[in-house]
Amino acid sequence: MELGIKNKVALIAGASQGIGRATALTFAAEGAHLALCARNRTALDAVADEARERFNVSVYVEPVDVEETDALQAFVSHAANELGRVDICVPNAGGPPAKPFLETTIEDWERAWHLNLRSAIVLAQAVLPGMVERRWGRIVTLTSYTVKQPVPELVLSNTIRAGILGLVRSLAGQFGKDGITVNNVGPGFTETARSRQLLEQRAQSRGLPFDQVRHELEREIPIGRMASPEEVAGTIVWLASELAASITGQTVLVDGGSYKGT
């Protein structure tokens, strides 16, 4: 199936592991060139080498902490200079810590805002002018199914990431006329280090074996398992494709049916 993104340039934040890594390689498999950032240069280089060797695409990498606005803006500028432009942008960052509300601090809230919402705003402001000029662009944010169905111990993520939905709807309404779509993907529990960490915390707090807590979680997921990073990546890439050109302002959950709403 032709997705219409061959030779497009896809910028992916948090691309060194997990869903970000899978997203980078899935774009590369479709012939898109890559601009990748994360904090770990060694892990980034490994993803870039794999993309080049397997799919013969161009890759620009830069170690960046998405909480650092100047560095993030500079990365977008460098990527556009190296690869010619940025057609597709996937804001992505690790989730804030799992804490009960009364154990959170103002510093926790400040960091969650910088990590998960402010970074998406900075990236959108940096890539949109070029997309408007070319009259084509895709922004696909990556959050969590908790934006629709909060998880009790994830109050920081539940709150801050919900703000992404307002950003997505606002940008979709403003820039649709310019050939730009803006959507959000909300994974449920996925086979990543982040999910394992959350389950380990649950197991520890309840004094139960990890495998028991994992089994209990998977029984609550209608498909009976966690998603793979590649399944989430496939949704992101599809939303960036020409096939999804009429879809904008939406949140697509990749949660195995965990969301109980309509």
From TrEMBL:
Instruction: Tell me which domain of life the UniProt entry assigns to the organism this sequence originates from.
Output: Bacteria
Q: Which SUPFAM superfamilies match?
A: NAD(P)-binding Rossmann-fold domains
Which family is this sequence assigned to?
Answer: Belongs to the short-chain dehydrogenases/reductases (SDR) family.
Q: Which PANTHER family match?
A: 3-OXOACYL-(ACYL-CARRIER-PROTEIN) REDUCTASE (PTHR42879), NADPH-DEPENDENT REDUCTASE BACG (PTHR42879:SF6)
Q: What is the recorded name of this protein?
A: Oxidoreductase, short chain dehydrogenase/reductase family
